[in-house]
Amino acid sequence: MPDSKQTVPADNEVIDLTGVSKRREKGDQIFELRIPRFRIQRGEFIAIVGESGCGKSTLLDMLGLLLTPTTCDRFRYAVRHPQPAVDIDRMGARDLAAIRRRDMGYVLQSGGLLPFLKVRDNIRLPRRINGLAPDCPSVNRICDRLGITGQLPKLPAFLSGGQRQRVAIARALAHEPPLVLADEPTAAVDKLTAREIRDTFKELTSQMGVTVIVVTHDLDLMLPVSDRAFTFALEKPTGSHTLSTCIEQAIR
Amino acid sequence: MNADPSSRYESPKPSSPALMLRLALADLWHEWILTACLMLAICAVIAPLLLLFGLKYGTIETLRHRLIQDPKNREVRPLSSVSHPKEWFETMQSDPRVAFVTPMTRQIAASVAMWVKDSGPEGKQDLDLIPTGEGDPLVLENGAPVPSSEECVLTEFAAEAIGAVVGDTLIMEASRMRGSRRETGTTELKVTGVVSRRASAIKAVFVPLALLEDVESFKDGLGIPALNWPGDKPLAYPLYDGVVVSTATPLPTLLQSRLRANTGFTRIASPAATALANALGYTIPETQSNLLLSTELRPLADSSITAVETQIRGYGAALLPWVRDLQCTIQLQGSEDSKPVRIVSLPGDGKRIGILPEPPWSEAVDEPESSISALIHPDHTQDAGTAQLTLSQTDQPLSIPIRLIPTAGVPADTIMVPSRTAGILRLATTRPLAYDTSNGHFLLSRRGYAGFRLYARALEDVDELRRSFENKGIPVHTEAQRIQTVIEMDRYLTLIFWLIATVGIGGSMASLVASLYASVERKKRELSVLRLLGLSGPKLFRFPLIQGAVIAGGAYLLAWGFFATMAAVINHLFRNHLQSGESFCTLPLSTALLAGAIILGLACLAATAALVRLARIDPAEALRDE
């Protein structure tokens, strides 16, 4: 993988969020997420752990450039090595979409596969969108490693939950992005399958030198493979105001 | 901020342009039942509208077409019979608003008897002749060819009456009364066609104009040599404006006054010698006593001179016929120049009393002018020669050859011809004449035509032609009223149609927009996934746009199929009321294409509207709410 060759910028940071906040209002309920400092090194496997409603999906959507922060001091990406870091908060929608398209892979809770495309076409889709050749040996290797080669001609509807998540992982990695975001990738499968999927995911991403950020409520499952973890501290200054602060959690 | 704010992110590589199309179609195919339902739902609102449009268009077009197609509605018929010269018809034919015009003879002269040759004269029927010619829409547009000479086309009623079919030979019999004797002339005509019932409700025969002219002439007592019909030759006769009664001694006053009674002459004068010489162009010996009888009105024929002759019989008077200023041009043979000259009537009878110059001819009535001689001033030509005399005071210029005799005493710019010739040239100024060079006869030509058959090129021209005729004082009849009715009906039907259509279109459009909006709404999750995968802006828009277009297009094609089927059923049900090529329910291609474009446009608009709303939804919601 080209990224594993280390001609790295000084600090080798791929993501730097400093003083970022997102405020959402629903009726009279106010939810505010604060991220004082969130810096990720290249190749790290990061777990973001928290109960539902703590803002972990909001954080992930901001990292996935789907949401823009309400305020931010610094929101900087340097995923595409060796290109210089870019300030996300200064970029237009087109460029954000370009980063999303090329530099990110996404694993959604329930797979997020397109129901009308066969497994093979779902996996090829990010390559096609990026104008890459739809077939490539590395994709075949990923599919082999995930054990879904036999499922390629099927429609997603005919797969089990575990198979779907494996396909989702394959799709997230198909265009060899430097960054993969995963949203509860194992929430919908049994514990044993979850562990298998986790291990394969970890193995593939570390082989490829991919930076991974996984959102999970299952700390026990993800901690063993994570380099670092973040969690949220909840406060309720008033009855209608919830304040959540993202903090790094010591794990070892 | 340490990053260069101006640095743009590396521009994205283009993905295959067909990708969105493939994705959109794959999705539609995956959910084909839903796709079909949407198409049917939209089809259900478009199809009745198409049908409504088709019915409106079809009925009006059929009515319009019938009006336009039936040449009878384009006819402009004269209500009174005014004589129109041949040139008038040439002018009319060159009018761009006129499709066809043919002269008509007098109605009374167009009635003949006809029967089928093989069945004998027992089946004789009186039929009316109608003149026709090249391009006659009444014949051509009613299923028959235009007949040439010795051919005819019958109306359906005429064909039934005499029991003739196409290919039969008919005998046509024209008849006239001469005194108490009935004379007939017959000719054979071949039936080349029968026009359909709508062309004419009378028993009539379409024949070339020439045959009608022959029948008319025959009825006027003339002979038609080409058809071996006996009768007179239409010989021209002289007309005079006056006559000089020249006697050796003055006539008694009582007799003088009698010269005005029943002779046609209205004036009597005894002008001075110089004045008389100026008027006549020649001089009468001063010993003679002269009376100039003349008319202010129309010129008089030989009979008036004969009447005068009767009155003064026994007085030894010379009668010198006179024509008032008669101008012509002569062109000497072998010369390019033509010069205007005055024509002077030089009576041969004047020889007796010694007029000057002396006429070299003696007048003999009824002698054909085998060669017209004219005296001319010797300066014009030294030798006797021939020249072409052109009379330009006529409607149709008359040109005749003359033999010039240079004679002393003839004034300059004057030619002197025998009185009879001068009289005939005087006649030529009042009506068309023809000169038969083979025998030197002047023949009367057709004066003009009593009527015409005229068809406008288009329905819209009819009223304009009517106005232009009426401005010229020719009252005409047209079907303007009926045409106006259809135009008005078209207007009202269009209004009613649009009232209905507005409601229908409004409803259909709402349904179309709602259906497509809902389908985009249902695609929320897929669209969010695509957005997550980095598709944004125009590319993402393409997905629902393509789907909307495909659904609307499919619905439109379905509706078109439905329309075509229903239109065929309707047209079949009403086939008895339709002529070939007509249909009650039809749509022109342009309207169909326009409707398709509008529907596609609306579909895209609906998809866009849905997508714009969708773009504002929190993607997190779309991805996680299941």
Please report the first level of CATH classification, the CATH class of chain A. Answer: Alpha Beta
Task: Report the biggest beta sheet of chain A as strand number plus sense, adding barrel if it closes.
Answer: 10 strands, mixed
Number of strands of chain B: 24
- Tell me, briefly, the overall form of chain A: globular
Number of extended strands of chain A: 10
Domain unit count of chain A: 1
CATH topology of chain A: Rossmann fold
The SSE string of chain A, one letter per element, is EEEHEEHEHHHEHEHEE
User: Which stretches of chain B are low in confidence, meaning pLDDT under 50 for 5 or more residues running?
Assistant: 1-12
Q: What's the main sheet of chain B like? A: 6 strands, mixed, barrel
The pair of chains with the biggest contact is: A-B, 46 and 38 residues
Decide which structural class fits the backbone of chain A: alpha/beta
Tell me what portion of residues of chain B adopts beta-strand conformation.
15-25%
Give the fraction of residues assigned to helices of chain A: 25-40%
**Count of helical segments of chain B?**
16
**How are the strands of the largest sheet of chain A arranged?**
5-4-1-2-10-9-3-8-7-6
Class by alpha and beta content of chain B = alpha+beta
Number of helices of chain A: 7
Brief rundown of the structure:
The complex is a heterodimer of chains A (252) and B (626). Chain A has helices spanning 56-63, 93-103, 119-129, 137-146, 161-174, 191-208, 219-222, and strands at residues 13-26, 29-41, 45-49, 74-77, 86-87, 104-107, 179-183, 211-216, 228-238, 241-249.
